[in-house]
Amino acid sequence: MLADALSPYLRQHASNPVDWQQWGPEPFAEAARREVPVFVSIGYSTCHWCHVMARESFSDPAIAKLLNANFVAIKVDREEHPEVDSGYLTAASAFTQNLGWPLNVFVTPQGNAFFAGTYWPPDAMRGIPSFRQVLDGVSDAWASRRGEVLENAADVAAAIRAHGSREASPLPDRAALDAVVDLLAANEDTQFGGFGTAPKFPVAPVLDFLLDHGSAESVALADRTLTAMAKSGLRDTVEGGFFRYATRADWTEPHYERMLYDNAQLLGAYARLAIQVPERGELARDAATGIVNFLLGTMKLPGGGFASAQNSESIVDGHLTEGDYYALSAADRAKQTPPALDEKVLTGWNGLAIGALASAGLRFARPDWVDAACDVATGILRLQIQESGELARATLDGKPSTARATLEDYGLLARGFLNLALATGEARWALEAQKLVDACVTEGGFAIPGGGDPVLAGFGIDANFDPTEGALPSGTSALAAAARELYLLTASRDYLAQAERAMENVAALAPLQPLGFGAALAVMSALASPPTQLVVVSDDPAAELADYARTWHTAGGIAITVSAAAAEEWSAAGFELLEGRTLQGGVATAYLCSDFVCRLPVTDSSALATSALSSSDSG
C-alpha cells in the first residue's frame, strides 16, 4: 500500500510486513467495518527513532501479525500532512508528556484518540513497556472496556475542540512585549546560550521576534544565542548548515538531520544580526555563507526547489551510522556516500528559503544569492501551483501529493515572495504574494482555499486554526505577517485589519508561552511599532542611498529600492507606497515615510541618515 506513495518516508516502510495504509477515509471505513481501532503512526524520513522503531518492531513479522489482526494501521508523513500531525499531537498530550516522533496514536474508527505514545522498544526497559505489551493492552481494553474507551476518546476530542476555540484579546503594546523579552531572558541558558536545558533547539521563530522587536535587550539576547550557536557543535563547519537540535545543553551531540526550515530561518537571522550588531558582522557572514553553501550545494534539486531535509543516518565504510559522516573532513567525505535527501518539495518550507536567500543576498550585497532565490521562486511557481490555482502541499519529481496545502504553505510562500520583491525591486513577486494572501481571506479570518483535509473535517477538526509554532511559523502568523507587509505597500487597511484579527486570537496565550509563539510575537511586535517605510528610487544599484537602504532596519518597518521605471510599475499595480516616487534631478532619491506620510525627498545618504534618526527618536 505504500510502494506507490509520494512520501519517501512512507516508501521506507513499504517492505514492512505491517499492512500499512496511507492517510485517507478508506482505512477508517475499514476499521468501522471490522470494528477494530486504528493505529496511526506519524513520523518523517530523517527521524532517527522512526528508523529505529521501523527496524525493531515494524519489520518484526510477529508484531506485524498482531497489528494486522487487531488494528487498521496508517502510516503518515508529518511533513506531508502537518495538520494531521498537529491534531494528533495535541490529542497525544492527554496521554503522555514525552511528545515527539515517531508519534503513535490509537484512535477510534471515528478518528478520536484514546491512547498515544512515541517510541516503544521491542522489549520492556526501565519502566517503558514493550511495543507488544502496548498492543496487547490496547487490544484488551478495546475488547473488554470498549464503552469506556469510546467515552474517554469522545471527551478528549471535545476538550481539544474547546481548546481550539479562543476569544479575541487586545494586542500587546511595546511595554507588554518588553515583558515577554524579560520572560525569555529568564529562560536563557547563561552558560551555553539558547533557552532551557537539554535537548537544545534553535527555536528560530523566537530569534526572529527578538531581532524584529529591536530593543537593546531583545537584540542582545538574540546576539548571545546566535553567537553561541555559530560557535557550537550544532553547526557543520565543513558543508555548512545547522543540525536540527543538540542532545546536550552545551550544543554538542546533535541529532544529525538537517532541515530546510531551520537553515532557512537561521540564514535570515544571521543576515539581520550582521546589520543590527555590526561587531558580529564577520561571524554572521561566515554562518550565513555556510548555510547558503549547504542550501545550494546539497539541498537544491535539479528539477527546481529545495529538498525538505537530509537524513541523520549514512553509510560510512559500509556501515550504517548516525553522525560519523560529519566527523570526517571534506576530503574524506568525498569518499563516502552522503546522507540521503528527502527530495519532496514542500511549498511553505521553500517559501522560507526563498525569503531568506533574498533577504540575506540583499543584506550582504550578494546579488548571486538573490538570483538563486529568483530561480527557486520561478521553479516553485511552476511546480507547486496547480491548474486550479491552488497550491500543492508537496511534490516529488514534479508529481503533486494528494495532501491538501495548508495555511502554512500560503503564508510562508507569500512572505518569501514579498522578501524577494523587496530585494529585487520587482513588483511581480509582490503581486504573486498578494494573490496568495487574498485567496485565504474570508469574513471569519484566514482559511485554506478549497478547504483543508477532508478526513479531519469529517472528524470535526478545524485545520484553519492551528496557531502553535515551535520550529517554524504557523500559517496564521505567516499570513498575518504577509498581510501587514501588504498594508505597508498598498495602504489598504483591510490587510492591516486581517493581520490584527488573526493575532488577536492568540494575543492572550502567546505572551505567556513565548517559546511556542515566536512568529506570532514577531507579528504583534510589528503591529505595535510605527509603520515606517523607506523607498529609494535609483537607476544605479551601487548608489549610496541604495547601499544605505540595504542595511537600514527599524522595528516594524520595510525598505525597498527600485528603479524609476519599476516605481511606475509598482504604482500602476496598486502599491500606493510607490505612487509618485521619482528621481529628483535625475539622481537617486530617498523617501522616508511613516504610515504613508512622507518627509521631503533627499538625495544624499547623510541627510537620509539624519532624517531616519529623528524619525526613530520621535517614534
Walk me through this protein's architecture:
This protein is α+β, with helices and mostly antiparallel strands and 619 residues long. It has three domains: 8-163, Glutaredoxin (3-Layer(aba) Sandwich); 174-308 and 343-527, Glycosyltransferase; 532-618, no CATH class. 48% of the residues lie in helices and 11% in strands. It has 24 helices and 20 strands. The chain has a four-stranded mixed sheet, with helices on both faces. A four-stranded mixed sheet has the order 18-17-19-20. It has a three-stranded antiparallel sheet with strand order 7-8-11. The longest helix is centred in the middle third of the chain and has 19 residues, at 281-299. It is globular, with a radius of gyration of 25 Å. The N and C termini lie far apart (60 Å).
Features of this protein?
619 residues; alpha+beta; Glutaredoxin; Glycosyltransferase; 3 domains; four-stranded mixed β-sheet; 24 helices; 48% helix; 11% strand
Please provide a brief summary of the model.
The chain has 619 residues and is of the alpha+beta class.
Q: What's the end-to-end separation, in Å?
A: 60 Å
Strand order of the largest sheet: 2-1-3-4
β content, as a range?
A: 5-15%
**Helical content, roughly?**
40-55%
CATH topology of the largest domain: Glycosyltransferase
Layout: helices, strands, pairs:
Layout: H1 8-12, H2 25-34, E1 38-43, H3 48-58, H4 61-70, E2 72-77, H5 82-92, E3 103-107, E4 113-117, H6 131-144, H7 146-163, H8 174-186, H9 204-213, H10 216-230, E5 245-246, E6 254-255, E7 258-259, H11 260-276, H12 281-299, E8 309-310, E9 313-316, E10 319-322, H13 330-333, E11 341-342, E12 345-346, H14 347-363, H15 367-384, E13 394-396, E14 399-400, H16 407-424, H17 427-440, E15 441-442, E16 445-446, H18 454-458, H19 475-490, H20 493-504, H21 518-527, E17 532-537, H22 544-550, E18 558-562, H23 564-572, E19 589-594, E20 597-598, H24 605-618
Parallel strand pairs: 1-2, 17-18
Antiparallel strand pairs: 1-3, 3-4, 5-6, 7-8, 8-11, 9-10, 12-13, 13-14, 15-16, 17-19, 19-20
